[in-house]
From TrEMBL:
It comes from Diploscapter pachys. This is ZP domain-containing protein. The chain crosses the membrane at residues 208-228. It comes from the Eukaryota. Residues 1-167 form the ZP domain. Keywords: Membrane, Signal, Transmembrane, Transmembrane helix.
Length: 232
């Protein structure tokens, strides 16, 4: 796919054969709701969220700034956020260039063009992956840019269940339902964070026993002192 208005046959062939670099822009981070309120009044530091690219599968080493790719190179995208209290939604991603962006992930987190990138699937609240191709080319392009945004919502916020993972995406619907069930229904993480078990407190009988023991010890010490003082 090219963004040039008119490209002749030779130029088109050159664009398709040329290996170019990849530039990953910093992730744009936003919050749903008041993060200070949801964190129990504590001031929380923004988590570190990253996007890494990998050739073919995400099990391969990440692409470095010096690596080159072809238009036909299969890419695995991996997003991660370092947090234990928030869930993330990848949204509003574009590839190409800032001058001619091609948006491939919508506001709701679903793909606009499945042939270029699948909708991100979520392995957990803080990790998502997608498969695609950075096949956008322009005349004179030395690198292709990718820019994504991530929205965070607190796990204890009831709205968070409706935000991530997105269930309105048309690709891999069954897998997305399984992701949702695994994250929100089968995991103990939300329960332990938002509805922790009450801490155990000493029973009244236990407290009474401690007081009784202390009183006996005190009485014995006083008796001993009196006995010593009264001795000739």
């Amino acid at each position: 796919m090219t963004n040039a208005n008119s490209v002749n046959g030779n130029e088109y062939s050159d664009l398709m054969r040329k290996a170019i670099g990849v530039r990953i822009e910093e992730i744009g981070l936003s919050w749903h709701g008041n993060r200070t309120t949801m964190a129990g009044g504590r001031k929380t530091r923004p988590p570190r969220c990253t996007l890494t690219l990998h050739k073919d599968t995400c099990a391969k080493p990440r692409l470095m700034s010096t690596d080159k790719i072809l238009w036909s190179t299969r890419i695995c995208y991996k997003w991660q956020c370092e947090t234990t209290e928030y869930a993330m939604l990848v949204h509003n991603c574009y590839i190409g260039s800032a001058r001619n962006p091609l948006y491939i992930i919508r506001e709701d987190g679903c793909t606009t063009e499945g042939a270029i990138m699948s909708s991100p699937s979520y392995n957990s609240f803080t990790r998502a992956v997608a498969i695609g191709y950075l096949s956008v080319r322009e005349l004179g392009m030395q690198h292709v840019t990718i820019k994504c945004n991530v929205r965070l919502c607190h796990l204890c916020d009831e709205d968070c269940r409706e935000i991530t993972p997105p269930r309105s995406c048309s690709d891999y619907e069954k897998e997305r339902d399984m992701d949702y069930d695994r994250m929100w229904n089968a995991s103990s993480r939300v329960q332990s964070l938002c509805r922790p078990a009450p801490s155990s407190v000493p029973s009244s009988n236990h407290s009474f026993n401690l007081i009784s023991i202390f009183s006996i010890l005190l009485y014995c010490m006083i008796s001993l002192l009196l006995h010593v003082n009264m001795s000739p």
